[in-house]
Structures are given as C-alpha cells and as structure tokens.
Amino acid sequence: MKSFRPLALLLGVVLIASCDKNSTMNISGPAAGSAVKFFNFGVGDTSVNFYVNDQKVTAASSTSCSSSVNGQTTDTTCLNAGKESRNGTNYGGGANGGGLYSSIAPGSYTLSARLTTAANNGVAIASTPATLADGKYYSYYLSGVYNSAAKSVESFLVEDPIPAPDYSQAVVRFVNAISNSQPMTLYAKNQTSGVETAIGPTVAYKTAGAFVGLPSGIYDLSTRVAGSGTNVITRTGVGLAAGRVYTITAYGDITATKGAAVPALDNTTNY
Predict the structure, then answer these.
(1) Strand locations in the chain (E)
(2) In 10 A of CB 255, how many CB atoms?
(3) CA-based R_g, the chain, Å
C-alpha cells in the first residue's frame, strides 16, 4: 500500500506500509518514477534537512503548529507558509522513518544535506551528484566523521533493489557507512535455533551487500572482518518478520569506545 503527500517541484512522499499476505501491495516502482530514503550517519554533525537540487524533501514540523488537545492548527504561519523545527534529522536517524521514501521524478540531481542550526542554517555539508532511474529505489547516507571547521561530511548513494514480497521469510542486507572500518560481514544468529547466517560477503565502506533470506524470528546481529571470529559491532534481540525487507547499516567511528560515536547497527525496514 502506498500513500502520498505532494511536494513542490518534486512529487511527494511514498509510504510502503506493512501488509499481510492477503493485502494488495504494488512495489513494482515508486509512484513518481524513483524514490530515495535519507539517513544522517555522519559522526559529530548536527541536525540537517535533505535536499534534491534546491528542493527540500525532508523536514521536521514544529509541535507548536498543532494543539496538544485537539490537534487543530491555528497558527497562521503554519497555515500559510508552514513552520519547521530546527531539529531536522539528527545523527543516527533516518529522515523518512520506517518504510518511507521521498518520491522523485527520474533524472539527474544533486542530493545534499544542509544544516538547520540558527548560526549556519542552510549551509550544505555534503552533496552528491545522482542520476535516479525510473522505477528504482535508493538510500542516501551521510557518513564518516564531520569536519566542523570545513563544515563537511562524506556521503554516498546506494540502490535498493527491493525484492518481491516473500511471505515465507524475512529478507535482509548490510550497508557499511563507517569510514574507518575494514570491510565487514554481517552475521545474524537466530536466538531460538542458534543458527548463524552470513548476510552476504564482506561489505566495504560506502557499499551495500546483497539481500539474503532468513526465517522470521529474533536475531542477534554482529559484524566481523574477513578471517576473524571476533565481533566488531553487535546488536541483540532484533525481530525480523516474514514478508518484510530490512537494511542493517553499520555507522559510527570504529575507534570510539564511548559516547554517540560508538559503532552501532541501524535496522530500517524497506517495506
């Protein structure tokens, strides 16, 4: 199932919602031709909004726009021009949420992230040329470590070749967004059966692995470098449901041992 919210110049937001096997779900292609998810995994940066060329495609609304009692909007700024929070998308977060893509007409663009802070509002800290093809999905990542002096961070785009729904299993892939890591393999260990499965081969920085099927269940996730039995990053108790597609992304600073920069594994549902 898809729902839409139009954006000026571009063509809205596509929601791929959870569906049971008796529901009709068309994932043959996004409604406006192509679609992109946006993630802020740039260690040490501040909140950002994401842009396609000069069109803002992600932003956080201010809670002051709606009454906490009845949800109605009375602020004329909100009604006429919109009011946004300075929060944007913070480090470690996805701008679109689970199952959401920004739907964009196919073509050549520059994808960018711009600061939302008052002092540097609108300053671009990353930009990536991209050609978006009709009927394809993508994920755009801020990555590496933010350079506060230059106000810059690395970024990259990967295609999301989403497979057709398979209600007999979950489907998972791995993306490496840690700039100072070695190539790693993601492993998923089923807490009930004890069976551990490698989610594709080793994955280098700024790349994505292949989608791999797993029985539905609760899994402990870990990454390892080639030839090593030592876990580099771990995350326990991750639920993976049949009929769903997931991307597990490693982000952070591989040398960090405390604080927000400690390497972590993000689990995002593609649908």
Answers:
(1) 13-15, 34-40, 48-52, 55-56, 93-94, 100-104, 107-115, 124-132, 136-147, 152-159, 170-176, 184-190, 196-203, 207-208, 212-214, 217-225, 233-240, 245-251, 264-269
(2) 10
(3) 19
SS3 content of the chain, % helix, strand, coil (to 5): 5, 45, 50
Share of the chain above pLDDT 90, in %: 68
Residues 94, 96, 99, 104: what is their CA dihedral angle, to the nearest 10 degrees? -130
pLDDT tens digits for 232-259? 999 999 999 999 999 999 999 999 999 9
Residue 187, amino acid:
Y
Among 141, 160, 179, the domain-final residue is 160
Report yes or no: 197 and 214 within 8 Å, Cβ to Cβ: yes
Domain stops at, among 132, 160, 188: 160
C-alpha–C-alpha distance, residues 244 and 260, integer Å? 29
Shared domain for 203 and 153, answered yes or no, is: no
Tracing tokens 């993976």 back to the chain, one arrives at: 240
User: Does 179 fall in a domain?
Assistant: yes
**Predicted TM-score of the model (pTM):** 0.82
